[in-house]
Known about the structure:
alpha/beta, 2 domains, two-stranded antiparallel ribbon, 10 helices, 46% helix, globular
Amino acid sequence: MSNQFKLKSILLVLCMAGAEPRLAADEATTLTTQSGAMDQLSSRQSAGTVTGKFAGDFAEFAGSQQNAEALIIGLRNGTPIVLTGTTTTTATAALTTTVIPPTKPMGYGNTYISLSLAKAQLAQYGITEPTPQQLDAALTGGSFTTTTVAADGTLLTKTVTLDGILTQRASGLGWGQIAQANGFKLGQVISGMKSANKSMASLSAPPSKRSGTSASASKSIKTAESGAVKSKHTSSSRGITTALSGGGVVYGKSHAKVATISAAGSQPGNGHGHGAGAPARVPSASIVTAAGSSVVHGNSANAPGQGKGPK
């Protein structure tokens, strides 16, 4: 290996070592921002709505929706939290564990972070559905044993001792420092908070935005329902026939400023006329709209015929 390659490798390691603290600091800043946003969004909803919404994100992890709501309420108020679980031996029995938060009352943002960090910490040991005792250890500190099955079928028992996310927070550590002390990054926690904030923001959006129907779309629907559409034609045209339900005849040149198009062709008229000359085509500039029939006879340029019809 050349000396130049060794130097480049050393520089790369030093750059990465310097970048990691900056990345951790950026993640901590982003997490703080998301926490503030969560507090602000939550203030627009009732406490019951927010608790139920966020508890849904932790129901499986906490063992039940009831446990998740108890955790959120207890951390928000700094009061004891009673968690209920089950254990299966010869029979299934209910068991409870009381978690005493060492922290002061927290906002929804910090509460969400606390539970997210406890979830990430236990996941490192392959625990995704912890018992109440394991949850207590993750939040306030303590020990528990885990049992795994080795490839050869033997059972492996391991004792895990945790400092406790809330205990570390109460000691004055920041969220970034807590994540680093427990050996995981904040990226997953940030992603979860962003998703939760987006969901909470949708509850505060106006009804039209939540349903996906824009104001312009609503206006278009109302216009379509009115059954009338009007258009304007300002150029000179030859032989303009409009909505003569019983038939109509037009001779000679005519100039129209505005032509009204009625969807039903309801303008009455049953007069007709005769004129000399072969029937003439209606020029492309003409506007012919009717539910009935409209006929043009004679030379539209000279119009030598005479018209008959009701006066």
